[in-house]
Amino acid sequence: MEKKDFEAWLDNISITFLSLTDLQKNETLDHLISLSGAVQLRHLSNNLEILLKRDFLKLLPLELSFYLLKWLDPQTLLTCCLVSKQWNKVISACTEVWQTACKNLGWQIDDSVQDSRHWKKVYLKAILRMKQLKDHEAFETSSLIGHSARVYALYYKDGLLCTGSDDLSAKLWDVSTGQCIYGIQTHTCAAVKFDEQKLVTGSFDNTVACWEWSSGAKTQHFRGHTGAVFSVDYNDELDVLVSGSADFTVKVWALSTGTCLNTLTGHTEWVTKVVLQKCKVKSVVHSPGDYILLSADKYEIKIWPIGREINCKCLKTLSVSEDRSISLQPKLHFDGQYIVCSSALGLYQWDFASYDILRIIKPPNFSNVSLLGFGEIFALLFDNRYLYIMDLRTEKLISRWPLPEYRKSKRGSSFLAGEMSWLNGLNGQNDMGLVFATSMPDHSIHLVLWKEHG
User: Do both 69 and 153 map to the same domain?
Assistant: First the structure.
C-alpha cells in the first residue's frame, strides 16, 4: 500500500476507532494482537513500558516529589523505598517527612542536623524503640547489694545512685557497673541529696547533716526540728538548705554555717517533700530566675518565694480536691513552669504563672498509680505491680514493665525515677541508663534500666 493511501486508511480507521465504545475498542485491540507477529508484539511491549510505567518521582521536580510524599504514612514510604534506588534516594532525602514521623513518635528533633538522609535513619531507630516499649521489651533489671538494713532514702544524678539506710550508712553507686564508689557512716537516713563533694542527709533523729564524700567527715549538723526530716534540698549559689519534717514545718538553713535562718509554718501534716527550683515564667508575684520553694504535706502544696527574702510569706496554697487527698512524695513534680501532682483523683497539672489547673488526667484505675516523672511528651508512673509510660499528648498508657514485691513506704522516697530528659522526647541518646529504682525487703535496691537498642 502506498504511503499516501496508508495514511488515508489510518485516518479513517482512527476516526472509526474513536467512535467505538470501550468494550468495542478492547475487542478490536484483542483482534489486532491476535493477528500480530513477534515483531509487532515486541514493538507493542516496548511502547507500553514507556506509556504505562512512567517514573513520576524521577520525572517530577524534587520539590513536587516531596510535596506528594508528605501525604503518605511512614510505613508506606518505607515500602516505596524498595521500588528502586532512585525512589529510595528521593524518599530518604525528604527531611520534613521523616522529622514529622519522628515527632509523632515522641522523638526530639535537632534542626541543626543538615544531612537530609540522617532523618530516615533516626526514624528507623525510633520505630524500633517504640515497638520495644509497646511490646514491653524496652527495659532490663539488675540489683545493688550492700546494705544490711532497711534502705529508705534514694537520690539519683548523672549515672550515680545514692542510698541511705537504717544500717547507719550511705552509699554511692555507679548504676552502669553496679559498683559502690563511696560508703560512709552516717545516721539513719530518711532523705539524701549529693553532688561531687558532699552528701546532705535528713534523718529520723530529727536532724540534717552534711558529709564529705572523700573522708566521710561530717562538715555540718543542722539541729532544730522536733520530728523526722523526710526531705531536703539545697542550692550552693544561694547558700541555702531547706528541710521538711514530721513536726509540720519547713526550715531554711545557711548551708555553709548550719544556722537556721527561718522556720516556715502553716502545714497541718508531715512535710514529706521540699523542692527548691528556679522559676521559668513571669507573673505578678515572681519573675524568671527567682528561686521558689515548694513544700508538700498529705493535703496541700505551699509555694514560698525563697530567693527574694529569707523571711518570706506563703504565696499560694494548692489543694488537689475538696477532700484534700493529695498524695505523698515522690508524686510531686515542679520544673519552674508547671506543678504536677498525683492523687487518688487523678494527675493534676497547674500553670505556675497563674496557678490555674491546666488539666486533670484520669486514666483507668488511677487511684493506685503514683507519679515519678512528668515531661513535655511522656510521664513515668507506677503502682504496686507495674511501671507505666504515658503519652501525655493522648493521655494513653503506651508501655508497662512488671515490678517485684518492693518494700512499701507510705511516707518516703523508697522509689524514684532515674534519667528524666527522655520524658521531654526520646532522641536515641537519652534512652539509656536508669529508669526506676526501689528498695526491696531484703535491703537490696531493684533497678530498671533501658535495654540497649537492638
Answer: no
